[in-house]
Amino acid sequence: MSKTIVFKFGGASVKDAKSIENLFNILFNRLRNRTLIVISAMGKTTNGLEEILRLKLNGDLTSSNSAKIKDFHLGICREIFPPESMIFSIIENLFMQMDRDLDKPLTQENYDAYYDQIVSYGELLSSRILQEYLCFKGIFCIWQDAREIISTNSNYRFVEVDWDKTKNLCLKHLGSKLEQYPVVTQGFIGADPKGKTTTLGREGSDFTAAILAFCLNAQSVTIWKDVDGVRNADPKRFPDTVKFEELDYREAAELAFYGASVIHPKTIKPLANLSIPLYVKSFLSPEAVGTKICQVSEPMHIPCTVVKDNQILVSFRVTDFTFIAESHIHRVYEVLKKLKLKVNMLQVSAISISIVIDMEMFALDQLISTLQNDFSVKYNDALQLITVKNQNADLVEALLKGKEALLEQVTRSTFQFVHKP
Questions:
Q1: This prediction's pTM
Q2: pLDDT tens digits, residue range 100-123?
Q3: So which domain of life are we looking at (predicted)?
Q4: Every domain of the chain and the residues it spans
Q5: Which of 44, 134, 159, 356 has the fewest CB atoms within 10 Å, measured from its CB?
Q6: pLDDT digits 0-9 by tens, 129-142
């Protein structure tokens, strides 16, 4: 029996009618037995749905806000489907469901659970449109609700996967389907034990592909992006970048952890555990080689630069003339875990703890209010964190030139600093 191949397409690959037609051409030339297609929300839909939540929370939401997203999807469909296609009623029904969900009260306390219910509509819409289009063009395929196959806990927006249950559900719902036809499903979403929609974290569709590949013991995963592979820096920010033909799982995982946007941080581990190769290819140049992420014997020495925007530097200073002890660090991390915040950089001095975190709605205010009785708290926002892996002195000097580093840190192989851009 042939093994499953997993293709994952990001939002940029389905941002408009021409992009969807291009995606069809990619699949038409590559589809064979047991192909699983994971799709993200179209274009900037997730950003638009997040803006709807922000407006609702502030009491500024109007029907025109969701109508813009609806018109965007309908506009694409009018270009690629005949007027009698059933896709138009499918989209109408999904937006009716979303509007009913938006009628429910939203508060700061239920924001995470509410977020998962609303933002998941992006993937539900894109996957239905893609499945209908493939069928319309003569590639019969099956739509699969990811919430039926990916089981998670109820830690909304930052869920953990129930791997055993998910594997059983994949075999139950996908095994026989994949023997007959390609299957289209959604990235980013799952369901908790009560059947309530959950999400895997921002940009989590890559992780979905890895989860499904692991559970099905797939032959390979290919992530189709608007870049030609994994490079040692973002070519949109830096000139003369180097593309990797091959990259070791560990190196890729580290780059993802530091913020390289080409791969979601959790994607690598399940694939590495089963030695499933991950290919990063361009949907703009589908015949190009791309990058293969796999087990590589030779260590990588090329310097890699990763930039993360919208960072916050928070410093906690003891106020009673004691020195920082393990109990202080434990207290800070206890609150960070409760608020679902990941530390991107940590530095401890004799009397203070400094951390760099992503900007998250409500998180900074909650962090300060919870710890202000234990520490004197100060912060700087709208910062940029730059990480250099396999650093060298010349590159570090060039990156620091003209910038005021608010915090910097060096290890044997990595240099990090945060500054105000």
A1: 0.93
A2: 999 999 999 999 999 999 999 999
A3: Bacteria
A4: 5-225, 304-419
A5: 44
A6: 999 999 999 999 99
